[in-house]
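Teaching soon. Got one?

===
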Amino acid sequence: MAGAFGYEAEHYDLSMQVGELSLFPGLRAARVGIDHEMLIVASGVSCQAQIKDGVGRTALHPIQLLAQLLEVD
């Protein structure tokens, strides 16, 4: 998505096409065991938005993942 570029309406389709080159197919093909959900981690807000729009999944920021890993019951 390259930062704000993909947020602009006139660039959205191109942003999705670029995602389809490698990122989206890779995320769709990734498989995890039945009891585990695949985590997607992306630090950039634009990357997270592109993933959400492209494959319908929410990407965590690395700090969010770290916070989850550090939670104590």
Notes: Residues 3-70 form one domain. DSSP finds four helices and no strands in the chain.
